[in-house]
Amino acid sequence: MHKRTLIHRATLVNEGRSFKGSVLIEDDHIEEIMEGEEVYPGLPSDTIVEAAGCYLLPGVIDEHVHFREPGFTHKADWTSESRAAAAGGVTTVMDMPNTLPHTTTAAALEEKCAVATAKSLVNFGFFIGATADNAEELRHADRRKVCGIKLFMGASTGNMLVDDEAALEHIFEEARLPIMVHCEDPHRIAANMAAVQATEGPDPDVRFHSQIRSAEACYASTERAVELARRFGTRLHVAHVSTARELELFTPGDALVTAEACLPHLLFCDEDYARLGARIKCNPAVKTAADRAALRQALTDGRILTVATDHAPHALSDKTGGAARAASGMPMVQFSLPAMLELVDEGILPLPRLVELMCHAPARLFRMENRGFLREGYKADLVLVRPHRPWTLTPNRIESRCNWSPLEGHTFQWRVEKTFCNGFLVYNHGHVTDEDFRGEAVTFDR
């Protein structure tokens, strides 16, 4: 059904600019962008959204999520987590391969895509996971349909560790897709765990997690990955950088090696274990307040290219215990945009820079087709946000199946009012508008 929607008199934030204007959506794409407060398209619209006082941004692209399906649907699935994404202004997600079965073959990719096609309210893409022996699968992965290669150089959820030097060299030398790498040195982590357990018992208090998954373990692994990328000329994106020292390995404007920051390391530090316990346990661990401050500074100096969530829901019962037993990961996709907008309010980064980090840069990095920008002809993936609309996060507002958040009780100052996915109003003032709407598999220009 042909439909025209006008979003009228918003403040558009796009490609380094903020300006008053309107956007005309025709079916699934942006038909026209009009600058100025009192402008209208030549033809009438079916729906007019009066957006004065709101900011219109490209829909957020979260390049790093774990939606748990297949294999862990007691924690989450594509229905519940795509609802959370839509409620947070996230219109495209890129899912990691450590599900069950692991997404390390073309067949597993096809099966996961079929599930998302049937269930997801937002757009989606998938990483293929690297193993020590799936070089042929990586070589023949469809470059138009696969986000990139996910490589675990540190053991995390899913047991997909690749640590053999010959296997790593082969992966970096043969890669035809960008590699996103999880960097933590497993040997240092094992030694740290043994040393702490010797004095603290088999399940040390969670406050030791940052000591066990230490800054040194992160730096050693990241340094190794960067060296391999430079030796073989491989496009490398280092996931969830968590330390100030790692930032020394990245240079603004580097087209080969780049870094991602994730919400847990931008919002929390090791001092927060006393208040939040295992709810903020994640891999890599949150580090010191100084590390957090350095990461925040790197949001604007070019060393951080993208911001994502590492959205990783667990049942709350899985989060009991300490540094050895409690599960690592937290659900963040619904709250990443409101949380980052508060960093804008604090003066940590300007709003156009937030849009660069969370919308434009992921689209450029992975060469996503027709998404990530407010441009005529691009898919109408949009989010309308309103400032100065306080709301407090309580469990009844949480869309993720796990139904908890480390941010419970926090009062946000920005509200996601509307989320448009492929031109469809999928989320409106606190509610998913149509349970039958489905997002699309994204494609890449390679």
Structure, described:
The structure is a single chain. This protein has helices at residues 78-87, 106-119, 135-139, 165-174, 186-200, 209-212, 215-232, 263-267, 273-276, 289-301, 336-345, 351-366; strands at 4-14, 17-26, 29-35, 47-50, 55-58, 60-65, 90-95, 123-129, 146-152, 179-182, 236-238, 257-262, 306-308, 382-392, 411-421, 424-428, 431-432. The chain has twelve helices and 17 strands. The strands form two sheets. Strands 1, 2, 3, 4, 5, 14, 15, 16 and 17 form a nine-stranded mixed beta sheet that branches. It has an eight-stranded parallel beta sheet with strand order 6-7-8-9-10-11-12-13. The chain starts with a strand and ends in a 14-residue tail after the last strand. It has 446 residues and is an alpha/beta fold. The protein is globular, with a radius of gyration of 21 Å. It has two domains: 4-56 and 377-400 and 411-432, Urease, subunit C, domain 1 (Roll), CATH 2.30.40.10; 60-366, Alpha-Beta Barrel (TIM Barrel), CATH 3.20.20.
Q: Indicate the CATH architecture of the largest domain.
A: Alpha-Beta Barrel
Question: What summary fits the major beta sheet?
Answer: 9 strands, mixed
Shape: globular
Percent helix, as a range, is 25-40%
Low-confidence stretches: none
Order of helices and strands: EEEEEEHEHEHEHEHHHEEHHHEHHEEEE
